[in-house]
Amino acid sequence: MAFLSACSRPPAPETKAPEAAPAVKARSAQAGYEPAESPTLKAVKARGYVACGVHEGLPGFALRDARGAWRGFDVDVCRAVAAATLGDATKVRFTVIGAQDRFGALQKGQLDLLSRNTSQTFAREVGLGVTFPVVTYYDGQGFLAPRSMGLASAEELNGARVCVQEGTASAGNVEDYFRVRGLKYRAVVAATEEKARQLYEAESCDVFTADISALAASRSLLSNPNGHVILPDVISKEPLGPVVRQDDPVWADIVRWTVYATLLGEELGLSARTVEQARETATDPETRRLLGVEGDLGALLGLKADWAFQVIRQVGAYHEIFRRDLGQDSALRLDRGLNALWNAPAPGLMYAPPMR
User: Is residue 11 a part of any domain in this protein?
Assistant: First the structure.
């Protein structure tokens, strides 16, 4: 059918880009049994903060609150890395970075970490000299449409005007979606997510396409959020997560296992509130290893024995971070879905290797 248009912590200051970390040395063949060396970690310790690139303003992921403090899921990933490496989750300097500039800033050493609702793809990881250490949020691309349109499916969008942000995977995905189905559309391209949302609300386009989590965030900012719906179609896979430079595999390990620590914390029943007591009383070997009571696995990454304990104590286990930023305690109220643990009653894809 043809579609007719007309339809509590102190704020962390922004910072100038830090000096680039030196090139990494070759990793020892015995790296599994020797303390690892990361030039990025060395630079972070020397300057006293993690330089993290974030979205300019996406509710649930990265947004300044009324006091100017950064809040959100991607922000908490940065803080977790700071807790792991420096023992203090507040030791982060946030740099606002646009979609077009994010990989260049990382490649040039202006950032230690990019945590900006970024999808892992073959071309990005293989062609840009970057590494996606871990998926923090399994997402997919969808469409936001006015409820008054009465649309049941995106397949009813033949002839539609579609708002999309340039420099994102969404533009290519929506092109593929319409081409494969023999449908026509007109892309209304915006420089930023905010501009795409504004064009959509001004009815300069009929629908808005982006990652579904981003659409939920954008809908929360509309003047009448209840007047808009996210269509049921999921037109792509979007594994979101932090990004680091490819030349420092030890730093990639640090970021990866920081996120794994939050997942293991949830799996083992830990929380920011209970982790201190658990460190004193736990008898389970994996819990003891995770919290640095038994063994010293942190030394293999150049970290202190209590690195994971600090992550959970200061930032939380994964379920706490999700609920606070994206779930039932947030404005977005997103369900866990694919982001539930592998062994949850409604299983998801979240799975961390054993801590041993």
Answer: no
C-alpha 129/C-alpha 114 separation (Å) is 13
Question: Quick one: 103 and 162 in the same domain?
Answer: no
Q: Reading across the β-sheet that carries 141-146, which strands appear in turn? A: 185-190, 160-165, 207-211, 141-146, 228-230
Q: At 149, list the tokens.
A: 């349109």
**Single-letter amino acid code for the residue at 267:** E
- One domain, residues 251 and 230: no
Q: Pick the last residue of a domain from 236, 263, 298.
A: 236
Q: How many domains does the chain have?
A: 2
Contact call for residues 14 and 69 (beta carbons, < 8 A): no
Cβ-Cβ contacts under 8 Å for 241 (sequence gap 6 or more): 118, 120, 132, 133, 134, 135, 136, 137, 259
Domain assignment of residue 164, given as a range = 141-236
DSSP string, 191-252: SSHHHHHHHHHTTSSSEEEEEHHHHHHHHHHSSSGGGEEE-S---S-EEE--BEETT-HHHH
Counting as low any pLDDT under 70, the low residues of the chain are 1-36
82/75 Cα distance (integer angstroms) = 11
